[in-house]
Design brief:
3-stranded antiparallel sheet; alpha+beta
Length: 116
């Protein structure tokens, strides 16, 4: 778990980035996309959007006021997106390192064989 500090209008808030928060943010993004793609569905998903926003805001300390919610949610989405990108980059870096190590190992084995 990672604790992130968010500053909004000079006020500092803390959020513990748990799997549940990440899932809620991803669900929220999906609902936003659904409402954007089909504006007629907005009424159907707006209650769910509101519920998820409340759940995310309940995980923030101190409790943000309604005037901070929009900016807070935007920043939380950005934090989750940045964390996802970081994880993907680390996975790619690890895969590349494994490939390089494998090639080096093969090359070393070839070199050992050529000495005989």
């Amino acid at each position: 778990m990672i604790t992130k500090e968010i500053e909004i209008d000079g006020e500092k808030f803390r959020l513990v980035l748990t799997d549940q928060i990440i899932n809620q943010v991803n669900n929220l993004k999906s609902l936003y996309n659904a409402a954007y793609d089909d504006p007629e569905s907005f009424e159907q998903v707006s209650a769910e959007i509101s519920s998820i926003i409340q759940e995310i805001s309940n995980a923030v300390e101190p409790k943000p006021s309604d005037s901070h919610l929009d900016n807070l949610i935007q920043q939380v989405i950005k934090i989750v997106d940045d964390k996802k990108e970081e994880v993907i980059n680390n996975q790619m870096k690890n895969q590349l390192q494994k490939r390089v190590q494998k090639r080096i190992k093969k090359q070393n084995q070839k070199n050992k064989l050529s000495y005989f």
